[in-house]
Amino acid sequence: xxxxxxxxxxxxxxxxxxxxxxxxxxxxxxxxxxxxxxxxxxxxxxxxxxxxxxxxxxxxxxxxxxxxxxxxxxxxxxxxxxxxxxxxxxxxxxxxxxxxxxxxxxxxxxxxxxxxxxxxxxxxxxxxxxxxxxxxxxxxxxxxxxxxxxxxxxxxxxxxxxxxxxxxxxxxxxxxxxxxxxxxxxxxxxxxxxxxxxxxxxxxxxxxxxxxxxxx
Length: 216
Hints:
The chain is an all-alpha fold.
């Protein structure tokens, strides 16, 4: 299919331009501005065409999913392609992308699919977001936790508490906020565990929560 070949060729040209190989992109993505690629708008347009084909012709999904996820990962700052997928794709096609993203090597694709699960709030996708809460990347874990709140707030609070002593500062902060927002019975224990946390934002959040609890 023409669109698949065109998209693959454009991606190959992007990687040549960037001077970065796809398998090490996660480690160096902060060193480049993807949108400076002269064919960036064309790359996004081609990917949107691929999304529309995925929407209308599921028989081609195996050839379309990988390049779509790859460009999603590159579009991690603007998220325009994520918004496009949210607007255009139905549950079946969206699930194709989400399922494939679980083992996709580029972090930007995984966290955006975690985000999309939260936006769509399909209960049947709980299994995917749970896998993403255990992703190898902490940022993906955080986005998955936040999306899990929209699918099962009780389960989200339980997992958040399990991560309350995580080595990642932002995981602890997000977990604390989830416990507070879901009015979890585990919040008091979390406050006790984090009152002397080494990360200042966590300590500030604890103080704010304690102050609000006293006022109420």
